[in-house]
Every structure is written in structure tokens, then in C-alpha cells.
Design goal:
single chain; two-stranded antiparallel ribbon; mainly beta
Length: about 90
């Protein structure tokens, strides 16, 4: 096993796909390829779980203050019937 920690070079907010290859050139044969979705944002989600209840607070990462106008949406993931939004809550 081997672990390497890397700080991605993205400076602008946005959605990214990060891909990694065990071998230079990203060959498909005899290689291990991994990828992930990554969002760069000033927003931070603080989640507290208690039983089946969840409390989510949206904060500004730079100030630590609640994010004005934030809305949190709850989705039920279902790969066979499509993901569905089952609730949402806007800032109080």
C-alpha cells in the first residue's frame, strides 16, 4: 500500500473532475485509473447527525459566518429509478 497526499492546483471556484493514473500517459492496458468529482468553493457544510435526523449548517469558509441565501437540498439516491430530491430548506 502507498499513500500520497496532493493539493490540487485549482484556484478558481467550480466543479472539476480529477483523474489519476498509476502509469505515465494514462494507458488503458496494465494500469490503474481513478477519478473523482471535486467542487472548489468557499462554502463549508457542517453536518450533525442524531438518529435519523440531520442538521446541516452552511458556512463561509473564509469568515466562518453563515452563508447568506444558502439552500440545502436532500436527495434519495436510487440508481435504478433516478435520484430524487425529497426535501429542501432555505436559510432562516
Amino acid at each position: 500500500m502507498h499513500k500520497t497526499y496532493v493539493v490540487p492546483p485549482m484556484k478558481k471556484s467550480g466543479a472539476y473532475i480529477v483523474a489519476a493514473s498509476a502509469r505515465p500517459g494514462f494507458p488503458k492496458a496494465d494500469n490503474r485509473l481513478l477519478g473523482l468529482h471535486m467542487t472548489v468553493s468557499d462554502l463549508v457544510l457542517v453536518t450533525r447527525l442524531e438518529g435519523s435526523e440531520a442538521e446541516v449548517t452552511v458556512l463561509s469558509g473564509s469568515s466562518g459566518k453563515p452563508a447568506a441565501g444558502a439552500e440545502v437540498m436532500l436527495y434519495r439516491f436510487d440508481w435504478q429509478k433516478r435520484h430524487q430530491r425529497i426535501g429542501s430548506k432555505a436559510e432562516r
